UniProtKB/TrEMBL annotation:
Protein name: Cysteine hydrolase
Pfam families, per the entry: Isochorismatase
Claim: ATP-binding is one of the keywords in the record: no
GO molecular function: hydrolase activity
Organism: Williamsia herbipolensis
CDD domains assigned: cysteine_hydrolases (cd00431)
Start and end residues of each Isochorismatase-like domain: 21-208
């Protein structure tokens, strides 16, 4: 496929080559979306993230149909917690912290049911899954190597939560030289205001660390 353009992107049209642009889906894990998971242990209303799922499923289908590289990420830690900094381990209410038993197994631990991606967005064979111990998808992961090996230069960024893992990953990708289009209605936050302002921050100041568009415009561009 040749280059396509999302004309309504802010602050300016976003042109990308689907063969060299990855759809990055950040942390659409049961532990963030379902009651009993990490998100809820932090005191959040996890129901707020559900609205993202059908929109993201549609965008994922369009990206797969266009042959785009798909990259899923999962935030989590080894069962022995050796990759979890003590400062992160101490966060949150006692008995409801990373590694503690939750409704879907130990909270945010690799291999547990809650750590995995929700059924609606389950990775297909051949799609990349990056397991990350931090908020950003580059820290202590192979993401940089994966992108280089596939000659990926631009990213469509989606997932949860807007102001935490989506922001950290997008900011870092921008510093590493990737053009990032954040798909606003395919990102979600437990806090509506954080989502709104988090999205606005990205394309402000002439696109200080990225572009923003809605999924319908991206799907239309790929069709
Ligand atoms: N709590 C929260 O908003 N987010 C996280 O802990 N991780 C991600 O954003 N994935």
């Amino acid at each position: 496929m040749t280059e396509v353009t999302v004309a309504t992107a802010a602050p300016a049209p976003f042109t990308f080559d689907p063969a060299h642009t990855a759809l990055v889906i950040i942390d659409m894990q049961r532990d963030f979306l379902l009651p009993g998971g990490f998100g809820e242990t932090l005191g959040n209303d996890v129901g707020r993230l559900a609205q993202v799922v059908p929109r993201l499923a549609k965008l994922l289908a369009a990206a797969r149909a266009a042959g785009m590289p798909i990259i899923h990420t999962r935030e989590g830690h080894r069962p022995d917690l050796s990759d979890c900094p003590p400062a992160k381990l101490r966060r949150g209410a006692p008995s409801k912290r990373i590694g503690d038993p939750g409704a879907f197994g130990r909270i945010l631990i690799r291999g547990e049911y809650g750590h995995d991606i929700i059924d609606e967005l389950a990775p297909h064979a051949g799609e990349v899954v990056i397991d990350k111990p931090g908020k950003g998808a580059f820290y202590a992961t192979e993401l940089s190597d994966v992108l280089a090996a596939r000659e990926i230069t631009q990213l469509l960024v989606t997932g949860v939560t807007t102001e935490v893992c989506v922001h950290t990953t997008t900011r870092e990708a921008n510093d590493r030289g990737f053009d990032c289009l954040v798909v606003s209605d395919c990102c979600g936050s437990y806090f509506p205001d954080f989502h709104r302002v988090g999205i606005d921050m990205i394309s402000a100041q002439g696109g200080i660390f990225g572009w923003v568009a809605e999924s319908g415009a991206v799907i239309d561009a790929l069709a």
